[in-house]
Amino acid sequence: MINNSALVGPGAETRQRLGALLAAAPSASVYRIGRGADPLPVAASFDPSDQPGSRSLLDWFERLVLDPEPRSAVLVVDDWALCHDLDPGIDRAVQWVAALGPRRGVQVVVTARTLAEIPPFVRRLLS
């Protein structure tokens, strides 16, 4: 069971996926990183076009790592190209989470039009 989720992505499409995440795990903490969360009940909201967008993602991951109670979690990056255009630092943040996350129960899911959109150093960490 997923206890914690973070969702990075744009507007309406992400709103749909966020609604599905909340329906699938109503007791989970869900962190929305991107626009379109309101009025959905999320624990925190971040926008990838804000300067600290990648930092917000790393803050979410750090909270998971430091939590004394182990939790399963999922990070969803929806529409890689758009998220990267809004926040070029997201590739390194996702790389960090994808590299260290599995040992801490964190899964990473990335959507993209083609695999070539995702940098090789990130792609190789995704299953």
Describe the protein.
The chain has 127 residues and is of the alpha/beta class. Helix content is 39%, strand content 18%. The chain contains five helices and five strands, in the order βαββαβααβα. It has a five-stranded parallel beta sheet with strand order 3-2-1-4-5, with helices on both faces. Helix 2 runs parallel beside helix 4. The radius of gyration is 13 Å and the shape is globular.
Share of β-strand residues: 15-25%
Question: Uncertain segments of ≥5 residues (pLDDT<50)?
Answer: none
Distance between the termini: 19 Å
How many β-strand stretches?
A: 5
What would you call the structural class?
Answer: alpha/beta
What is the helical fraction, as a range of percent? 25-40%
Quick recap:
With 127 residues, the chain is α/β, with parallel strands linked by helices. Helices cover 39% and strands 18% of the residues.
Q: How would you describe this structure in keywords?
A:
127 residues
